Amino acid sequence: MSAQLKRLTDLIPGTLLCIAISGVAVLAQMAEEHWTGRPWIEALVIAILIGAVVRTLFQPGKAYLPGMSFCAKTVLEIAVALLGASISLQTLATAGLPLIISIALAVILAIIASYMIGRALKLPQRMAILVACGNSICGNSAIAAVAPVIKADSEDVASSIAFTAILGVIVVLCLPLLIPVLSYTESQYGVLAGLTVYAVPQVLAATMPVGIIATQIGTLVKLVRVLMLGPVVVTMSLLAPRFEGSSNDTRAVSLPFHKMVPWFIIGFLAMMILRSLGLIPEFFLHYSSYITVAFTIISMAALGLGVDLRTLSKVGGRVTTAVILSLGMLLIISIALIHFIGLA
């Protein structure tokens, strides 16, 4: 058996598990629609919940891991890239410069506020930076990108990522509950989700149950927020020599372009440009929306399978408190920007 064929066959068990969970989630949504007239909990969310329960009660064996990782990463990234076909540059022009500036401002304020919270709780400086960047930009991806730049300990990285994985799912599940409380339109909720949800793919899970407008705007806002990772990494590399316990080796750790700007963001932007130029056939636009939803549900099942609810008890109390307070501060900053700067 060739190496390529073996890699493909290794993906089968985990991928089938994710598809099976997705199928159950879709059936559950159909049952909701039949009995209540509408899906109160979408298949996307149900897939995450089922995956988390399965992961907590049943530890998938090594045979499942390659497929689970493939669905959680590659399938998810393909879904995000395809979503770009549903958005045109006209949408970005409609958002306007004030929104883009506000997104950058929200990220900067959130990093500063989160860092101050972490230090007030006596977290080590590097740990406080990891929590601040992960909370303010894009969760685990930001933590992984910033960690080598500031020379963070592996234990700090693991602790930061452990809680982010669980809290990210909680945010996806709970954020839609704020719509009636805040009386938000789809556009306003899309901005809120884009500013507060950790990962680009998780924005899909948080916004798709609300509507296509919320999904489009939320994804657009989130992508602009993720693009802030490049300037933040460069800034951290310049400040790294001043951090506590820095060694005499003050050389900055440079990251390649694809680490700061993942391929699926480039793909999303490319699809958006092609859509704006009218170069995407109508039949592809029709079917790509269904493929995007299907891939997203499968990837949400995989993300759920990566969340062991018991991990929550293993994370230090100060880290837990810092992440929760930082998320609360990010939420406050986002709501303030929406209301006082006239977003959406």
Key terms:
mainly alpha; 16 helices; transmembrane helix; membrane; cell membrane; YeiH family protein
Measured distance between first and last alpha carbons: 55 Å
Structure class: mainly alpha
Task: Give helix % range.
Answer: over 70%
Parts with pLDDT < 50 across at least 5 consecutive residues: 248-252
Oligomer: single chain
Apparent shape? globular
Provide a count of the helices. 16
Helix and strand run = HHHHHHHHHHHHHHHH
Mean model confidence by pLDDT: 80
Radius of gyration using CA atoms only: 20 Å
The counted number of beta strands is 0
Main sheet characteristics: none
If you had to describe this structure to a student in words, what would you say it looks like?
The protein has 344 residues and is mainly α. The protein has a domain at 89-295 and 309-340. Helix content is 76%, strand content 0%. It contains 16 helices and no strands. The chain has helices spanning 3-36, 43-57, 65-83, 89-120, 125-138, 140-150, 154-174, 178-182, 186-196, 200-207, 212-226, 229-239, 257-260, 263-276, 282-305, 317-340. α9 runs antiparallel to α10, α9 (186-196) packs antiparallel against α16 (317-340) and α10 (200-207) packs antiparallel against α11. The longest helix is centred in the first third of the chain and has 34 residues, at 3-36. The chain is globular and about 55 Å long. The termini are far apart. Residues 248-252 have low confidence and may be disordered.
